[in-house]
Design brief:
The chain is mainly alpha-helical and 347 residues long. The protein has one domain: Mitochondrial carrier domain (Mitochondrial carrier fold, Alpha/alpha barrel). Helix 1 packs across helix 2 and helix 9 packs across helix 10.
């Protein structure tokens, strides 16, 4: 066994890492090109890696998530009614959020967000890789159709299993001391929010906005297809340049994750707004203004135009790109670490 496996592990690699091979003599070196050894497809490992990646991204970008959600709300105009024209909406809203609710306001809903994002990302990555493995066994080769099918499967699993947590997260983030912004019950805690929803709206209240969440699968699917496609293009370009076992650099991973998320987020953003509106509380006894995804989008477009459909887009873009980069880099880091650790133990 070559001693190269004992060298410090590379932090970021492609989905396939090289395994050193030995030859009996130097004349056969050209016929013994290092064989690529796939990283583990163990669902539990991908579950853990995805969960850690998602949690890390949430903690770092939480303030932007909070203000994005509030700017998507139906009373979001109250947040910027005295804003100077030259002042960016995102920074103005963040400043006044701290003024109203203190620095703790920047992390509203962090508890349910962390509670949800770790299993959500974990379910997403593990289901994605499990679906890919199953399709590979049935003879489907890696490519856009396989990536898309896997991403849709993963996104749907996440939307159905974690929907109630996201509704609670949204409700908690919309709680603010700004007069007339909130309607309905003021939640004191995560548990009070749960009990209030059960008491006032019944168990089905936890699944408000599920239709929009299922539509959001298109964003995740689009993102994963782009991400896999960018990685594939980079590795192909490196192979053409003569590299034997090409690996993606940290910068290339960042660019692949960031650009794929940016394109997907912008192209599918209106579903984010209507999902928040559907999850919002209504005043006691009031008939909900938004009753479905299509009806809600039409109402927003008619009453508020494009500005309404893209409310909170600024903080969303500022958040999702670094969040996606942090998530994917942590995910790849954990998989890479596990891969090299397993090689060391095998040796």
């Amino acid at each position: 066994m070559s001693t190269s496996i004992y060298s410090p592990p590379l932090i970021f690699t492609l989905s396939y890492s090289s395994s050193s091979g030995s030859s009996s003599n130097t004349n056969s070196n050209n016929n013994n090109i290092n064989k690529k050894e796939p990283r583990s497809k163990n669902a539990l490992l991908h579950f853990v890696a995805g969960g850690l990646g998602g949690a890390m991204g949430v903690i770092v970008t939480s303030p932007l998530e909070v203000i994005k959600t509030q700017l998507q709300g139906k009373n979001s105009n109250l947040l910027v009614q005295n804003k100077p024209r030259f002042m960016p909406t995102t920074f103005y809203s963040l400043y006044h959020l701290v003024q109203r609710d203190g620095t703790r306001g920047l992390w509203k809903g962090l508890g349910p967000h962390l509670l949800g994002v770790a299993p959500a990302r974990a379910i997403h990555f593990s289901t994605y890789n499990l679906t890919k493995s199953i399709l590979n066994k049935f003879g489907f080769k890696d490519g856009p159709i396989l990536y898309l099918t896997s991403a849709i499967s993963a996104g749907s699993a996440v939307a159905i299993t974690t929907g109630p947590i996201w509704l609670i997260k949204t409700r908690m983030q919309l709680q603010t001391s700004l007069k007339n912004f909130n309607e309905g019950t003021q939640y004191r805690s995560f548990y009070h929010c749960c009990l209030s929803i059960i008491r006032e709206e019944g168990p089905l209240g936890f699944y408000k906005g599920l239709g929009a969440s299922l539509i959001s699968v298109s964003e995740s699917a689009f993102q994963f297809v782009l991400y896999e496609g960018f990685k594939s293009k980079i590795i192909q370009a490196k192979l053409k340049q003569g590299e034997v076992d090409p690996e993606l650099s940290t910068y290339e991973y960042l660019m692949s994750a960031g650009v794929s998320k940016l394109v997907a987020a912008v192209s599918t953003y209106p579903h984010e707004v209507i999902r928040t509106r559907l999850r919002e509380q209504s005043a006691p006894g009031a008939i909900p203004k938004y009753r479905s995804v299509i009806q809600g989008l039409l109402v927003i477009a008619k009453e508020e135009g494009l500005r309404g459909l893209y409310g909170g887009m600024g903080p969303h873009i500022l958040r999702v790109v670094p969040n996606s980069c942090i998530m994917f880099l942590t995910y790849e880091f954990v998989l890479d670490l596990a891969h090299h650790a397993s090689k060391l133990f095998k040796s």
